[in-house]
Amino acid sequence: MNKLPPYTQSCLLYAARYAHTRPTGAAYQIVSSIMGHWDQLDDSIKVRLQDEAISEAIYNMEDWHILINKEV
């Protein structure tokens, strides 16, 4: 499977950063998008997404744990 373009991977990272501190449905939507493209992400982006979810997410933790617990 082809990797997503770097700018698309960055957009998923930026979207996750936005959703970490908002008590909305954004976390679910972003995590779902990330999981749908997981195999197309660079390992460095996967680790970054997980690390930032661990340290930054404060709402919707059940959604973020899907991402945090995914094997890289």
Description:
The chain is mostly helical and 72 residues long. It has one domain (6-68). 65% of the residues lie in helices and 0% in strands. The chain has 4 helices and no strands. The chain has helices spanning 6-19, 26-36, 43-56, 61-68. It is globular. The two termini are 16 Å apart.
How would you summarize the topology of this molecule?
Elements lengths: L5 H14 L6 H11 L6 H14 L4 H8 L4
Portion in helices:
55-70%
Number of domains: 1
Order of H and E elements: HHHH
Number of helices: 4
Task: Please indicate the percent range of residues in DSSP E strands (runs of 2 or more).
Answer: under 5%
Biggest sheet layout: none
Indicate the overall shape. globular
Work out the radius of gyration. 11 Å
The residue-averaged pLDDT reads 97
SSE class: mainly alpha
Please provide the count of β strands.
0
Distance between the termini: 16 Å
Low-confidence stretches: none
What are the defining features of this structure?
72 residues, globular, 0% strand, mainly alpha, single chain
